[in-house]
Write a structure and sequence with these properties.
With 416 residues, the chain is of the alpha+beta class. It folds into three domains: 212 residues, FAD/NAD(P)-binding domain; 94 residues, D-Amino Acid Oxidase, subunit A, domain 2 (D-Amino Acid Oxidase, Chain A, domain 2, 2-Layer Sandwich); 63 residues, no CATH class. It has ten helices and 22 strands. A hairpin with a 5-residue loop joins strand 16 and strand 17. The termini are far apart. It binds flavin-adenine dinucleotide. Flavin-adenine dinucleotide binds next to helix 1, strand 2, strand 9, helix 4 and strand 14. The site of flavin-adenine dinucleotide has 42 residues, from helix 1, strand 2, strand 9, helix 4 and strand 14.
């Protein structure tokens, strides 16, 4: 890089690519550095909800390509009880979702940012140069070359769930907030063009004992399916079990329509899901955290791609504002915008995941809930964050009602 860009984006996943796209759209000189090279693997279910599809459409993503598989809704199982729910009609979001391998998705979104005017450098690792917790410069490292030091005006930290760069700036995760662990693999299946993504809320071991976790099958439309399992740190006994064992148990009881062979196409891989905006501070004098680096995953459903796009876009707006006004204090408004947009929702989500960590609450919700289509359609809307803007007021009281339902005696109180 011959000179420092106005904005450097660390990480070329969904959060970084979206931040770069929208910064370039605002006319800002922006460079993304991605330490790996596209197409790069990422442990992920590869599921895009209608919210994520909306963000991608806004960036000009081509959903008509043959490797994109559109899905019309969610099929949910709790044991043998099953319910199929189409994605709801919504004034902002489409009534369909999609699946696409992250190995293909992320490079393509980075290319959209590049077409918009951003520079995208692959195989470049960024390391923070910090002086007394103040980010003074960034060192860019390429294999076999001398490091290069740049001094951008602002840095977007989009380096994912482990966020080494963010930690070097003093960002840390709240231990009392939930986080998820999940693992996924690909299997061949004759049913890979199924129009529904599928989840299992009640996983049992060989002896029929309930395990703390959930499983999913996301059909990829290309002869393969993405099968995964996860758990949340609020689940009782989560420390005594690993996600591979949950995946094993889930695979053993997978619904017959998937017709999979025993062995996956490649060895399953896993990762962490930092949730409920658990990581902070989210801004410094000259930097902002987005996506997993900010802990942006939705605790209700483990969705993080969309929130990486949304927070990347939001951060881009505030950085463009700070550059235009010359006032770095403008960045602080990013924090406030996150609170305004997500705080109420995530507070309920945290209570919800605490409640379902209690196996008897989970059993009641899944067995009673899945027998009621209207209730479950509403739950799907809440869990995928697909309420209409005018329903938000209503949502506050509805969230209050959920709090009452799930706030059982003995449940650990959630701090606001
Ligand atoms: C098993 C599993 C299944 C999941 N399934 C889904 C799902 O189906 N749908 C969904 O919406 N979400 C899902 N998630 C969550 C989703 O994967 C993340 O929320 C999402 O990837 C966050 O995007 P990001 O851009 O913040 O981070 P990432 O996608 O992790 O991107 C960060 C990028 O930064 C790069 N990087 C890191 N450090 C540096 C550095 N120092 N310099 C340069 N580059 C760097 C990395 O190589 C990486 O490419 C799942 C997560 C897991 C673990």
């Amino acid at each position: 890089m011959s000179s420092s860009p106005q904005v450097l984006v660390v990480g070329g996943g969904p959060g970084g690519a979206a931040a770069a796209f929208w910064l370039a759209r605002h006319g800002v000189d922006v460079t993304v550095v991605e330490k790996r090279r596209y197409p790069r693997e990422k442990a992920c279910g590869d599921g895009l909800t209608p919210r994520a599809v909306r963000q991608l459409i806004d960036m000009g993503f081509d959903f008509d390509r043959p490797d994109v598989h559109r899905v019309v809704g969610l099929r949910s199982y709790a044991g043998d009880v099953m319910l199929e729910m189409p994605w709801p009609e919504h004034s902002i979001y489409p009534n369909w979702g999609a699946t696409l391998r992250r190995a293909d998705l992320d490079g393509r979104v980075a290319a959209l940012a590049e077409a918009e005017g951003a520079s995208v450098l692959q195989g470049v690792e960024a390391v923070a140069v910090v002086d007394d917790r103040d980010l003074t410069a960034v060192e860019l490292r390429r294999k076999g070359e001398e490091p290069e030091v740049v001094t951008p005006d602002y840095v977007v930290v989009a380096d994912g769930s482990l966020s080494r760069f963010g930690r070097d700036l003093g960002a840390h995760r709240r231990r009392d907030y939930p986080f998820g662990l999940a693992v996924r693999g690909y299997w061949e299946s004759p049913n890979s063009t199924d129009g529904y993504i599928e989840s299992q809320l009640d996983i049992r071991d060989r002896e029929g004992r309930a395990m703390p976790g959930y499983g999913w099958v996301f059909p990829m439309g290309d002869g393969t399916i993405n099968v995964g399992a996860g758990l949340v740190s609020t689940f009782k006994g989560w420390k005594d079990i690993n996600t591979s064992r949950i995946l094993e148990a889930y695979l053993a009881s997978l619904p017959g329509h998937w017709q999979i062979e025993k062995d996956p196409i490649a060895r399953p891989i896993g990762g962490k899901l930092p949730m409920a905006f658990s990581v902070g501070p989210k801004t410094g004098r000259n930097w902002v955290l987005v996506g997993d680096a900010a802990g942006a995953v939705n605790p209700f459903n483990g969705e993080g791609i969309d929130y990486a796009y949304e927070t990347g876009r939001l951060a881009a707006g505030f950085i463009a504002g700070a550059l235009a006004t010359g006032d770095p204090a403008t960045l602080g408004a990013y924090d406030e915008a996150l609170v305004a947009e997500y705080a109420a929702y995530h507070r309920v989500a945290r209570i919800f995941v605490s409640a379902i960590g209690n196996p008897s609450v989970m059993r009641t919700l899944t067995t009673v809930g899945l027998r009621s289509r209207p209730l479950m359609e509403w739950v799907l809307k809440v869990m995928a964050n697909l309420l209409e803007p005018e329903e938000r007021g209503m949502a506050e009281s509805v969230y209050g009602a959920i709090e009452k339902v799930v706030d059982l005696p003995g449940l650990r109180r959630i701090k606001a």
